[in-house]
Amino acid sequence: MKLPSKLAFLITFTLAVSGEFPNHKVVLKSLQEVEFECKQYLRIPADAEGDCEPRCEQILLRAWTDCHGFRSVPFGRHFHPDQADGDFLNRTQLCLDAALEDVLEEEVCCQSSLAWQCYRDQYGNPRHVPQLAPMPDILVRSTVEDCARLLQINDLELTLYALTRFDVNDRSHRLLRCIVIRQGLYGDVEGPNVDRMYVQGGGEEIDENSFRENARECVEYLRRECHDNSTLATRIVNNCFPPGSGPGTVALVNTVFPVVSSLIGSVHDLVRTLRNLDPLLKPLVPVLAGPHYALNPEIHNNLLDLQVESLIP
Question: Which of 70, 144, 247, 261 is most buried, by CB atoms within 10 Å?
Answer without folding.
Answer: 144
